[in-house]
């Protein structure tokens, strides 16, 4: 069963970036096959709906780099939790992932603004930027 919804271009491109990372990193063949199937469908949507210029392609690369770093940080956090209680190193990893997620949201918003999306993801991270 599929549920079709409208999403912003930034959300579509972010989802594609995440699936590309999963396609490279997942080991289990059945999981990779599911990811590949979804990625193929979303890339078809991208090809039909979006025309990416060089600036938008750079933003897509940034999204993929940020999502890849978040993936690595998350793995390190889970590994750290398996090893014992939360310590300063784990807190720093979590804060870095939190900061990257904020930047990720900003890039998605830039994409949406650039393409005139009527759907915008709203975030509220408060006034703390670099505490």
Structural features, described:
The structure is a single chain. The protein has 131 residues and is mainly alpha-helical. Helices cover 73% and strands 0% of the residues. It has helices at 9-25, 29-49, 54-83, 88-114. Helix 1 (9-25) packs across helix 3. The model has no long low-confidence stretch (mean pLDDT 93).
What key phrases describe this protein's structure?
131 residues, mainly alpha
Which structural class fits the helix and strand makeup? mainly alpha
Order of helices and strands: HHHH
State the end-to-end distance.
45 Å
Gyration radius, to the nearest Å? 17 Å
The biggest sheet, with number of strands, parallel, antiparallel or mixed sense and barrel status, is: none
Low-confidence stretches: none
H/I helix tally: 4
Helix content: over 70%
Q: Can you tell me the overall shape?
A: globular
Strand content: under 5%
Q: Tell me how many strands there are.
A: 0
| Chain-averaged pLDDT | 93
């Amino acid at each position: 069963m599929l549920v079709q919804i409208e999403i912003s271009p930034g959300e579509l491109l972010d989802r594609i970036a995440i699936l590309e990372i999963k396609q490279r990193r997942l080991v289990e063949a059945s999981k990779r096959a599911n990811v590949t199937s979804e990625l193929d469908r979303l890339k078809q949507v991208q090809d039909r709906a979006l025309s990416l210029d060089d600036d938008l392609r750079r933003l897509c690369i940034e999204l993929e780099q940020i999502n890849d770093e978040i993936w690595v940080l998350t793995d390190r956090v889970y590994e750290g939790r398996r090893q014992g209680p939360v310590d300063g190193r784990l807190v720093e990893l979590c804060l870095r992932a939190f900061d990257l997620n904020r930047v990720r949201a900003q890039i998605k918003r830039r994409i949406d603004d650039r393409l005139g999306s009527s759907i915008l993801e709203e975030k509220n991270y408060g006034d703390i930027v670099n505490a």
